[in-house]
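Q: Here's a chain of 197 amino acids. Please give me its 3D structure as tokens.
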Amino acid sequence: MKIIFTILISLTIATTSFGQEISYDDFKSVIPFLQKEDFKGAFDKTSQLLASTQNDSSDLHGIVVYMNIFSAAGMVTLDQMTHANFLKNANKFVGQKIVMSAHPCIDSSSQGYNSLKFVTVDGQLLGLTISANNKKTNILCYEYFKYFDPIIPADFIGKNIRSGGTLASVEVNPNNSKIWISRLHIVNAFAREMTPR
């Protein structure tokens, strides 16, 4: 009887921890690490949050997934993680929802880091962001979005847009260079104007 009771308690604890959802306060707790570019601190915090919320499919969970991948890429630029370990970590999230930071949407002819623009590749309209560190010395993530619904770029230019979708694949720089670390390919993507909270 004692063994059955112990098993029931263990199952209850496991179910409770995996059934939790990431809260807005959880999300906000990561921001100071990223503002200081304490990528290891952000990676550790997001890893902890993601480990306890594995069944969460909310947008906040998707945002924390992105923060985890972004901070891991930052760690690569600081020699705190290898390209191979980055890829191993990021590949855990393939097939899951990922939600990026909001970026200003710019015209496709403009150049800019940390902004979204729409480009045509092989006849298909894609969203593209180039997310860099604060000094713009390293590109942490190229992010390519294949949108689920048709997109009219003119509806988004000049606005702050948040994109996300399902992480389909991850690439790392084949030369292990730190000029750029990763390419994230997102399918069934969405683009929506960011509204103040």
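Q: Can you summarize the key feature?
A: The beta strands are 97-99, 103-104, 116-121, 124-132, 139-147, 160-172, 180-193.
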